[in-house]
Amino acid sequence: MQHRFVLAAGLALGLVLGLAGCHKDQSATGDAAKQAMGGYAKGFNLLLKDPHDLVKSYFQTISEEGPAAGAKPHLFPSQSSAARAVKDAREAFAAAGAGAPAALAQLAPASEHAVAAADRAIAVFTEAQKYYEAENYKDDQLAKGKQLHTQMLAARKELSAAMSAFEDGLSGIEDAQAASELEDYAGDKGYSYWFRYYNIAAKKFVATVDDATKRDAAYQAISAAHTALAAFAASKGELAVGFGPYMASADTFLAACTKLTRADKGVAAETGDAGQGVISAYNGLINSGNFLYQLESTHSLK
């Protein structure tokens, strides 16, 4: 499964801290839930970056079949940055869990599993990186290298499964909060409404990356959403700070959707994997959207 950034990372911005100490709404769409989701999303996105890149770099250096005799693998020592990401994610999850309402209770164990899986992957990578750096394979004819490879295969599988389960848990809450927020801005369809509207439509298309049966309908929907977003932007003339980059990200996302839809008809993209291209473009869109959330928190998105 190809993972995406969670858009809820910006939902909690601007909320008043200290909700855990008072009576709070126990629903998935109240202020306490939005604040907690901000923390959970931050941690998820952290785990999705450096720890994921670390595992990916291992398999870019050493094939699925394992280290080959005569090869001289060199693993770039990226475990420190991955470990910092896990530390920051663990802290974000702890803060989120402390103030989370009952509707988000299932996210705590899911986040703990994801952190533990990331820790294991980093530990295996660290041992492998030191093993190859010291060229110890010259002493044991790659015996330990093969053992570490088996462990890395298992660690990757565990991390992917943990992140998938965590993402599934976040997704339903994310959808409920996004729909609730969109409704809040429906009366005045300004910047705040339109980037939420397009984010929601984009996520629906992302769901088809692993389910081509729904792709045609989803492509029609995202194309219509993009046309509506572009019409709004054109009506504003000079765009607010931050919205121009968001529009560029929206254009890139639609282009990626077009390439994937075209691939269904037998016309492959010239470079890269079309499905991964959609995920990458979506992650760029969410990063742009999160900046707009920040502008909102300071009343600067006007």
Short descriptors:
single chain, 302 residues, mainly alpha, 9 helices, 69% helix, globular
Description:
- The two termini are 38 Å apart.
- The model is unreliable at 8-23 (pLDDT under 50).
- Helix content is 69%, strand content 0%.
- The chain has 302 residues and is mostly helical.
- The chain folds into two domains: 1-184; 188-302, Four Helix Bundle (Hemerythrin (Met), subunit A) (Up-down Bundle), CATH 1.20.120.
- Helix 3 (107-133) packs antiparallel against helix 5 (143-184), helix 6 packs parallel to helix 8 (243-263) and helix 8 (243-263) runs antiparallel to helix 9.
Helical segment count: 9
Basic shape: globular
- What is the average of the pLDDT values? 90
What does the radius of gyration come to? 21 Å
What separation lies between the terminal Cα atoms? Answer: 38 Å
Give the count of structural domains: 2
* Helical content band: 55-70%
Strand content: under 5%
* Quaternary: single chain
Largest sheet: none
Question: What's the helix-strand series?
Answer: HHHHHHHHH
The counted number of beta strands is 0
Structural class: mainly alpha
| Low-pLDDT segments, ≥5 res | 8-23
Summarize the structure.
This protein is mostly helical. Helix content is 69%, strand content 0%. It is globular, with a radius of gyration of 21 Å.
